[in-house]
Automatic annotation (TrEMBL), chains A, B:
Residues 12-72 form the HTH tetR-type domain. Gene3D superfamilies: Tetracycline Repressor, domain 2. Residues 35-54 bind DNA. SUPFAM superfamilies: Homeodomain-like. It comes from Leifsonia soli. Pfam families: TetR_N. This is AcrR family transcriptional regulator.
Amino acid sequence: MTDKISERIPSAERREQILEAASRVFGERGYFGATTDQIAKAAGISQPYVVRMFGGKENLFVGVLSRSLERLLVAFTRTLEDWKAEGSPAAAAAVVSDGTPVAGGHGEIGRRLGLAYVNLIEDRGLLLSLMQAFSMGQDPTIGAKARDGFLAIYRLLRDEAGFTPEQTRSFLAEGMLLNTLLGLRLPDEYGRDEAATELLECTFRTKLELVLGVAAENGAASAPAKAQGA
Amino acid sequence: MTDKISERIPSAERREQILEAASRVFGERGYFGATTDQIAKAAGISQPYVVRMFGGKENLFVGVLSRSLERLLVAFTRTLEDWKAEGSPAAAAAVVSDGTPVAGGHGEIGRRLGLAYVNLIEDRGLLLSLMQAFSMGQDPTIGAKARDGFLAIYRLLRDEAGFTPEQTRSFLAEGMLLNTLLGLRLPDEYGRDEAATELLECTFRTKLELVLGVAAENGAASAPAKAQGA
DNA sequence: GTCTATACAGTGATAGAC
DNA sequence: GTCTATCACTGTATAGAC
């Protein structure tokens, strides 16, 4: 490795590498706290090249945000398509099987969408840069983009999953709690703090009961551990 | 105003001024993005004085976080005391009057706590610096403090409001959604975007129905407007 | 497509005066 | 209790070479 000059690769591919690195750095340090140099190093290229390719830090953040929203929309859309292809049983069931009033309430499709969401935000860069964007409403460019994205998700859920406005709101609330628990790294506290353990089991049992339903036999500890990752 | 030298005031008072200013700046720019100089200017004093009084940027952020969590805990504790003093009707009603499964679910005390929370996070500095802290789980000092604070709130709700773990989780989820809507400045979109309007009315009708219940007659527009503030 | 060099503006923290 | 001066870095963006 002469190491100084990176391999010459197509710009589309390089662009994706930079976005991936930027997602992590923006996530950890925030928009203002992240530096183009940190991003460049994370992507294995020079700082001026990052700036040149995106025209500036703000454009780069907008790129990261667009990519995150796009991935989210695609994940939800695919989940909905699969569900419909299987012959979606009725619309989203408003009432839960076991009578729990709050936790479920979104029916089978709600569980599937929730699972798709959890899988997506295991990418901590994506999770954290979304969270950053959601706290930047005051920024003219980024704030507007973030609001648009959030509303696009709201509409998708309401219009395609058959959720009522109330169900949509509740589903989003659950998602925002997941964001917070993972942002806080609360799974690190699993098994070491009574409240954390209870909250995590309660959350992930509900969210993942579809796939991990049988995991109750394997010991409940494996469910929250699933969310720790890198 | 000779303007160069600030009035000589007691350190406790100055400390509070700095925390208030820091809360706003950290909220808007994030921990890494905020500068001690911006905070100093917002507080109307010199940058070295800020550093000297708190011993460094990290201590200052921890101070801001402690203050925010303290205010939140106090607000909830007072709300609970008032409620109990009035002769709290049963425990937290698990079932809602109008049959809505998700929105309420926390009974009278849930509505009161929700209202106390909304009032508190009208302070955008507090809201945003909490949100920042909740995305910093990876930081050894700040992350640990943030987790502790979040769990303290969880325990308070569960143990003092009589919530089940499920109800507590659901209440927190609602709070995290509120954070996001306000962080995004979604109220700016009220009346200008169909989905935003619906989501806000749905959210604030539920949260504020206690105080603004009769406001349905004044036109629903006034409810979300309440949350915009400075 | 990718780099080095560099201009110009901050940035946290310390020293020490008043 | 509060400031000015200042150091040693770090940050974005541009110019221009390969």
